[in-house]
Each structure stands twice: as structure tokens, then as C-alpha cells.
Design a protein that fits this description.
Length: 631
């Protein structure tokens, strides 16, 4: 029997193919099953136009059969088979795809579900096999042929016996080496898992004989093993089903089966799009944060299928970072895959899909917020931080998409409110959207800086997460209302007691006192002044300029520690008794003024959640006061 030679370049190509195209060896099974499915599809298409032919679904299936004794794995199908010529053309010429040709010939027909196109997938079998044997009989032919190859050195074709139409591919599985395990491709459980992973939605049954055990007849403790044929794949993808046929439970089961999470989905999003790019997608908003969500290990992305065959496990380009919590899959027939079918060739379609998906997720969250507020709050407590990062990231370019989805704790409602809630109930004389920052709600509640705004009856948003102020800075305003920290210099609130003029005079009077205090604090504050916002508290810190104290704290804790300082102002409540003591000390006892000023400054730091600079000095100062007051 004459051996036919691959052409020289083909030899190299084949070697390259076998060793470098694929990143996962296990995909050989995906490739061979896809070919089998294509072969059955071809019969199905023929039957569409040939009135003599009937396509009885029950007769068409794929079989996967490991044989440990002979170290073979056989993949057979009842598809269209190959003639001798087709064997030569399709398996003897690398990068020639009979399936692509078939698709082109049958373009006018309904359904473009044929998977093959590059004419290389078949050779992936050599990643796991030393010898590949193909036994095939073409539809409408009486002759069967055997094709055999050990890889790069060529192939043989000879006539053989085969009863039924279809193809059988027999892989002689490689021996294990020190580095590589091949035995696993003979294990039932492993093969089943690979089929589930990549080929679950092949439209024809993939059958496998599996070993089960049962009680021996007439015995109540003796077991016997027996072989049983099972269909391993689910065949009809849930995303191709009609939405009206599916229940909440179906989606929840899919979520669990796919191992998207250990929790339950909070909400599912099912979309079918027909257009320039057609695709189906099922996505989920999880109920709780995955344990690794805020770690470097977390990988965002959706599963990407092409015609029901898994291409990528985590396609990250499909999701923006701020929606990285979304789980799910996309299936499209319009993707241009690269030759390994593990990646995409052009990302034009992908970009279109990604944009579309982003808008759907946004829309879904908006309707959740509108119609199921409590559920949305649950969601926001878990993933709101990610949305705020989204507002802040990329120089604020996503803020339009995200601002309506934000929520903050409200001083009035004592719960989360949206910016729209806030703005829509702002009284007319309120200029700004007020916020206060601090570690916890309880702490903010007690901040002296909130006194004036609260007294005016204005609502305050409480910022407890480090990202909050940064995100808000990026927004700058919402519905034309600017954001303003309650600690900022100008609160935009007119003083109630018409004593502005008198006050100005008083400022003048106290000028020397404040200058003296500022000197005592030697550079720690930009200014000491009379507070317009304090009501019952004696003292607080506020800031002039862009950087607030909260921001300074966060920036200081960052690894590269940018040396950004807030311009601090020490505000004194002139209606508080302490003020009289200060004046008194200023006139009579400079030592005392020194002591009081340092004490007040340190108190203001403590209220702000900042550390006092010299705790020992501070406690000594307090003791000194205690001693002098009892004298
Ligand atoms: P592709 O599937 O991308 O076309 P392959 O290398 O996987 O490339 O297969 C090459 C060709 O061999 C296919 O296009 C098809 O014509 C033929 N072929 C492969 N497997 C089978 C099979 N099981 N039954 C019939 N034809 C097959
Ligand atoms: Mg193929």
C-alpha cells in the first residue's frame, strides 16, 4: 500500500498546529464532537431539500467510547460520512474545510448552525493520540474507507468494511510521560466533564456508556457493575428557549448548574437580539458578593459560545469593570473566531454585543430600582461600591450611565436614597446637595459640622465609604445641583440672625485673638475663625479648597502616599461659653491661651476621627485643667 506524503509545508503546519494552536489539550474532544455534529447537520440539510429523505431525529447521535484495555477512545457519528475523495480532500489537505464549502453551497437554506470553517480542528486529535484512524461510509455509497495517520509523516487510505453510514474516529491515546498525563482521556468521569463543559449544547445526543452498579438479583448486600448508555449533553440550550416557557426556577437551576455562584441569582437577564449581530444571552445579578470578588484573583467575564460551542470561559471584553459582578453567557453565530476557535479574530461584533449588554444591564438595574426597591437596596449594599468606582474611573466617562444607580444613606430618611430622591425634594432655598463624610453613620450623626445644615432642615447624605467623595467629585453636580461637604468653607446658607454687619465688626474685634491662636498652632491650620455652622459644639475643623479632611485621610493611606494636605480651618463657636474663656485668657494669661488653643485643636481632630499629634501632651493638658479647676 503506497503511502501518500503531506507536502513539506503541510508537515510543518501540522506540527505547529498540534503543538501551538491550542492552549487546552482537552479541546480535541470539542473539535471531534463538533465535526460529528456538523456531519449530522449535513444530512439534516440534505433532507430539507430531498423529498425522498426523511430525517428521523432518533437515528442521529454521537457516541463517545473509551477502552482502557486497548487505550483507545472512539468518537462515532451517524452523520453524512466521507467518500474516498472527501477523505483525501478534507483530512489530507490541511486547512481545507469541507464544512465551510458545504455552508457556502447551502447558504440559501435556513439555519447556519454548522460549526466547522477552518479545516484544522480534526488534527487536534494528535495532541492526545499517536495514531488516528477514521472509518467512514458516505451517504448513498456502498463502499467504506479507512484513513489512518500517525501525524506528520503522512496518511494511508484503504477500503474497509462498515455497515452503516457515518464516521468512526479511533484515537490511540498516548502513553503517559513524566510531564504529561493522557490516561485521563480514558476516564468516563473526565470525558463526561469535558463534554459538559464544551459540548453541552450540541443539538444531537452525545451518548456514552457509563458503568453503574446495582444490587445483585436476589441479594441485599452484593453489588454488580453494569453498562448503561447515557446521553451526556443537555442539547437544547436554555437561552434558545422561549422566555415564556421558562420559570424563575429554570434560571436558578441554570445558575447553579453553571456554577456561576453558590448563592441564588437576585435577578436574571435574558436577551435575544436579531440584527447586525445576532446573539442570545442569559446573565445574572448575583445575590451576594463572591468570596473572591475584591481580590486580585477575581476575573470578570461572561462565557462566550459560538453556535452553542464554548469558545471562552471568561470573555472579559463583554463586561465593563463596574458591572464585573454580572455572571452569565453569550451565544452568537456571528463571531469571527481565530483558527483555534479559542479567541476572536475581530472584535467589532464583540464591541457591539458588549455595548448592547451594558445597556441591558443598566436598564435592568434601573427597573429593579424602580419596581423592586428593596431588592435593589440589597443589591446596592453588595455591589454599590463597584458602581461608585465606575463613576470615578476612566476620568468620569461612565458617570452618565451610573449616576442614577447610586444610593447614599440619608440623614432624613435614615436609609439609602438615590440622588434623584434627594434633588426632587430639595426646598427652593437650598442651593447644594449636602454630604458629610466619616467612618460610620453613628459618627457622622454626631459631627458638629452638620449642625447648621441640619437646623435648616436640609437633608444630608452620609458618606461612609472611602470612594464616596472621590466619586462625587467626579460627578461635580447632579441635575445641575452642586455637591457640597458640610465641612466646606461656603455652605451657601444665609445667616439667620441679621447680624452680619455686627459680625463683621466682631471679626475685626477678635482678629488679634485668632491671629494669636493661629500662631500657637504654628502652621497646622490655615486660619482660625468664628463658625457660622456650629450651634451647640464649641469647635470644629472645616476646609477651604478642594481637598477635604476625609480625602486627605484616604490619600494618606494610599501606597504611593501623595502628599496632599487639606487646608484646615479651626472654627470656634462664639456663642459657646468656651469662647469667653478664650477671650479672657487672651487678655490676662498667655499661658492659658496656649493651653486652651491646643486643647480645642486636639478636640477638633478627635471629632474628625483623626489622631491627636501628641497624646501624652494632650492628656497632660487635660489633667492640668482638672487640677486648676479644683484649686
Ligand atoms: P472544520 O471542521 O473546521 O472544517 P476539521 O479539520 O475539523 O475542520 O475537519 C475538516 C473536514 O473534514 C470537515 O470540514 C469535514 O468536511 C470533514 N470531516 C471531519 N470530521 C468528519 C466527520 N465526523 N464526518 C464527516 N466529515 C468530517
Ligand atoms: Mg472541525
Amino acid at each position: 500500500m503506497a503511502k501518500k506524503q503531506f507536502k513539506a509545508e503541510s508537515k510543518r503546519l501540522l506540527e505547529m498546529m498540534i503543538n501551538s494552536i491550542y492552549t487546552h489539550r482537552e479541546i480535541f474532544l470539542r473539535e471531534l464532537i463538533s465535526n460529528a455534529s456538523d456531519a449530522i447537520d449535513k444530512i439534516y440539510y440534505k433532507a430539507l431539500t430531498d423529498e425522498q429523505m426523511v430525517f428521523d431525529k432518533d437515528n442521529y447521535y454521537i457516541q463517545v467510547k473509551p477502552d482502557k484495555t486497548n487505550r483507545t477512545l472512539t468518537i462515532s457519528d451517524t452523520g453524512i460520512g466521507m467518500s474516498k475523495e472527501e477523505l483525501e480532500n478534507n483530512l489530507g489537505v490541511i486547512a481545507k474545510s469541507g464544512s465551510l464549502a458545504f455552508k457556502k453551497e447551502n447558504e440559501s437554506k435556513d439555519g447556519h448552525e454548522i460549526i466547522g470553517q477552518f479545516g484544522v480542528g480534526f488534527y487536534s486529535a494528535f495532541m492526545v493520540a499517536d495514531v488516528v484512524t477514521v472509518i467512514t461510509k458516505a451517504l448513498g455509497s456502498d463502499e467504506a474507507y479507512k484513513w489512518e495517520s500517525r501525524g506528520a509523516d503522512g496518511y494511508t487510505i484503504e477500503p474497509c468494511e462498515k455497515e452503516t453510514v457515518g464516521t468512526e474516529i479511533i484515537l490511540k491515546i498516548k502513553e503517559n510521560t513524566e510531564d504529561d498525563q493522557y490516561d485521563e482521556y480514558l476516564e468516563e468521569y473526565r470525558l463526561k466533564a469535558i463534554i459538559k463543559k464544551y459540548s453541552d449544547f450540541i443539538r444531537y445526543p452525545i451518548r456514552m456508556e457509563v458503568t453503574s452498579s446495582r444490587l445483585k438479583e436476589g441479594s441485599d448486600n452484593e453489588f454488580e457493575e453494569y453498562q448503561e448508555e447515557q446521553t451526556v449533553n443537555s442539547m437544547v440550550p436554555i437561552w434558545k428557549k422561549n422566555k415564556s416557557e421558562l420559570t424563575e426556577e429554570d434560571y436558578a437551576n441554570f445558575y447553579t448548574e453553571k456554577r456561576y455562584g453558590f448563592d441564588k441569582p437576585l435577578k436574571h437577564i435574558h436577551i435575544s437580539v436579531e440584527g447586525t449581530v445576532s446573539y442570545n444571552a442569559i446573565m445574572f445579578i448575583p445575590e451576594s458578593i463572591p468570596y473572591d470578588y475584591y481580590t486580585a484573583e477575581f476575573e470578570k467575564g461572561l462565557e462566550l459560545y459560538s453556535n452553542g460551542v464554548l469558545i471562552m470561559n471568561k470573555c472579559s471584553d463583554l463586561l465593563p469593570d463596574y458591572f464585573s459582578f454580572v455572571k452569565g453567557m453569550v451565544d452568537s453565530e456571528d463571531l469571527s473566531l481565530n483558527i483555534s476557535r479559542e479567541m476572536l479574530q475581530h472584535d467589532r461584533q464583540l464591541k457591539l454585543i458588549a455595548k448592547n449588554i451594558k445597556n441591558k444591564i443598566k436598564g435592568q438595574l434601573q427597573s429593579l430600582l424602580r419596581d423592586e426597591r428593596e431588592k435593589y437596596e440589597e443589591f446596592f449594599k453588595q455591589f454599590g461600591r463597584q458602581l461608585k468606582y465606575g463613576v470615578y474611573s476612566d476620568y468620569g466617562s461612565h458617570k452618565e450611565d451610573l449616576q442614577d444607580l447610586l444610593m447614599f444613606y440619608s440623614s432624613k430618611e435614615k436609609k439609602l436614597v438615590t440622588l434623584d430622591d434627594y434633588v426632587s425634594r430639595m426646598p427652593e432655598d437650598q442651593k447644594y446637595i449636602y454630604y458629610a463624610s466619616g467612618e460610620t453613620i453613628e459618627r457622622i450623626e454626631k459631627l458638629p459640622q452638620t449642625e447648621l445644615v441640619a437646623e435648616k432642615g436640609f437633608e444630608i447624605l452620609y458618606f461612609t465609604e472611602d470612594i464616596d467623595e472621590f466619586a462625587i467629585r467626579m460627578l461635580t453636580n447632579y441635575k445641575e445641583k452642586e455637591f457640597r461637604s458640610v465641612s466646606s468653607g461656603d455652605l451657601g446658607i444665609e445667616s439667620e440672625d441679621q447680624t452680619d454687619n455686627a459680625e463683621a465688626g466682631e471679626e475685626e474685634d477678635n482678629k488679634d485673638l485668632f491671629e494669636a491662636m493661629k500662631d500657637i498652632l504654628s502652621g497646622k491650620v490655615k486660619e482660625v475663625r468664628v463658625s457660622k455652622r456650629l450651634r451647640s459644639h464649641p469647635v470644629c475643623l472645616s476646609t477651604d479648597g478642594e481637598v477635604t479632611i476625609e480625602m486627605e485621610k484616604i490619600l494618606k493611606s494610599m501606597p504611593n502616599n501623595p502628599n496632599v494636605q487639606a487646608e484646615k480651618v479651626l472654627e470656634i463657636n462664639k456663642n459657646h461659653e468656651v469662647f469667653a474663656s478664650l477671650k479672657n485668657a487672651f487678655e490676662k494669661d498667655k499661658e492659658k491661651l496656649n493651653l486652651f488653643t491646643n486643647l480645642l485643636y486636639n478636640q477638633a481632630l478627635l471629632i474628625e476621627g483623626l489622631a491627636v499629634e501628641d497624646p501624652v501632651q494632650f492628656t497632660n493638658d487635660v489633667c492640668q485643667i482638672m487640677v486648676s479647676s479644683s484649686q
